[in-house]
Known about the structure:
The chain is of the alpha+beta class. It contains four helices and six strands. The relative contact order is 0.11.
Amino acid sequence: MSDTSVVHVPVWRAPSDINIHADIIEEIARHTGYDSLPFASMTQEVKRTQWVADVALRRQMEELSVHDLRADQLETYPWVPEKMLDAWSVDKTQLYTINNPLAPEQRYLRDDLVYNLLSYTAKNSKFFDRVAVRDIGKVWNQSGASSAA
């Protein structure tokens, strides 16, 4: 085999579906057949982690909100649209900004989860009579620390 190989992507695959080396390996494995690949077990040392009260509290909150209150658990993007901040009259000079945002109107990091939760709820309220959500994302406060909300 030469240093350069040609891989033909099946026509039924989306052009954006083959982007990285792992995508090509996946296609080769699919063509060859997963059953013909050699089995190798993965081993990793498992270390005992110290119990943390904060984790136990978060798990209790998750149990209550997801299982008992039947809320959907989601994690929204960390930025908030500028129009949402304007609607809430938020002082944007007090927010952190992203240096290279995906879109100029999404350059602010959220300081509260309410913006994205309201947006999610509004989008889904037309499909459901009841919408209950819980966001497990982080917010960034003025001290510079991020915190889970």
